[in-house]
Design a protein that fits this description.
The chain is an alpha/beta fold. It is built from 13 helices and 14 strands. Helix content is about 40%, strand content about 20%.
């Protein structure tokens, strides 16, 4: 039996690799997608082979991740609940797609992942995999084995001589890519507990950020960022540059309790510097270029789109349909936003566009001869007609006792 394992080199997947060999007598192919983990990839192949992997795939998917997954989601303005920018969720369909492709190439009949039975990632990986190969077998060890906690996994790793970067004293887990780093579990399971200051890796503590603000401009073409500070870059380059600039100024920290798809509330702490800047900048350009009714309709659909991404339905027909609508809405979102980064804040200070619907001549409080203010009287009376009729009915009922 051959199994393709989504392998990160962390505690869970290191234990899973060994467990698959022992439990299923499987030949395990370890697959790591480089979606922006940076130094976390160092020594990964050697570690996987030392733990028993028969072969190892480590593939640089950063450019594809940025252009084909993150940027379409950004065009849609997707934010889940009170601020999650979907960094982990959007990486899962890409990883699942490549796992299925490797399984087909290697003649593997199953894929495996390290998501727990309580989390969202099990749903994301498996729904994506089944959408691409309805007959693929999925092995989810957290739903099968007798290990009940990460403390048990640490003991298993020590017993089998597996080197893992997690200790019982520091058990929270992380997930990193171009769009964010997430932190959950351990000390963070108490929603009142303050995140340890030393935990953050992408963003400087706002109290220690530079005392002088930084001005940054982001240029957009049809809803996609194409340049930062006048320098044109591809999506990968833009995300790396904004992660650097915004992270230096402490921008992009998010601490929230979210509703998982399986019904559990979970506290997550995130760092998303580039994502924060790109969302604010895109909104600024939308404000002057997007038609009012298109903007309002698009905004009404954002929560549904975000749920599709969060819940794992990236390859679903409804997400594809809605993506087409989001892309059409973003077609005229072309222009430049200027933002100020300062001690954790990211504020818009200007926006401009050759496609602007904003007309300063119409918007002015000074005298102009295009907008006849007397026209507003009929407009207001027509829009108030149903309310006036309701008020008359209520008054009639009072009179009639």
């Amino acid at each position: 039996m051959k199994v393709v394992l989504a392998y990160s080199g962390g505690l869970d997947t290191s234990v899973i690799l060994k467990w698959l060999i022992e439990k299923y007598h499987a030949e395990v192919i370890a697959f790591t997608a480089d979606v922006g983990q940076e130094e976390e990839l160092s020594g990964l192949e050697e570690k996987a082979r030392a733990t028993g992997a028969s072969s190892v795939y480590i593939e640089d998917l950063r450019a594809e991740f940025a252009s084909d997954y993150v940027f379409p989601m950004l065009r849609a303005g997707a934010v889940y609940e009170s601020g999650y920018l979907l960094g982990t969720a959007i990486a899962r369909p890409l990883i699942a797609r490549r796992m299925v492709e490797i399984a087909h190439k290697e003649g593997a009949t199953a894929i495996a992942h390290g998501a727990t039975g309580k989390g969202n990632d099990q749903v994301r990986f498996e729904i994506s995999a089944y959408a691409l190969d309805p007959d693929i077998r999925v092995i989810a060890p957290w739903r099968e084995w007798d290990l009940k906690s990460r403390t048990d996994l640490i003991a298993y790793a020590r017993e089998h001589g597996i080197d893992v970067p997690v200790t019982a004293e520091k058990p929270y887990s992380t997930d990193r890519n171009l769009l964010h780093i997430s932190y959950e579990g351990g000390v963070l399971e108490d929603p009142w507990a303050m995140p340890p200051p030393e935990m953050f890796r992408l963003t400087k503590d706002p109290r220690e950020a530079p005392d002088e603000p930084a001005e940054v401009t982001v240029e957009f073409n049809s809803g996609d960022a194409v340049a930062v500070n006048g320098r044109r870059m591809n999506p990968l380059g833009i995300m790396r540059e904004l992660n650097r600039l915004a992270g230096m100024h402490g921008v992009g920290r998010i601490d929230m309790v979210e509703n998982r798809y399986v019904g559990i509330k979970c506290r997550g702490v995130y760092e998303s510097p580039a994502g924060t800047v790109l969302h604010r900048a895109r909104e600024a350009v939308e404000q002057i270029t997007m038609d009012r009714e298109v903007l309002h309709l698009r905004d009404s659909l954002v929560p549904r789109y975000a749920e599709m991404v969060y819940d794992g339905y990236w390859f679903s027909p409804e997400r594809r349909m809605l993506q087409a609508a989001m892309d059409e809405a973003a077609r005229e979102v072309t222009g430049t936003a200027r933002l100020r980064l300062y001690k954790g804040s990211c504020s818009v200070t200007g926006r401009r566009s050759d496609e602007a619907l904003y007309d300063p001549y119409l918007a002015t409080f000074e005298e102009e001869d295009v907008y006849d203010q007397r026209d507003a009287s009929g407009f207001i009376r027509l829009n108030a007609l149903r309310l006036r009729m309701a008020a008359r009915r209520a008054a009639r009922k009072v009179r009639e006792g």
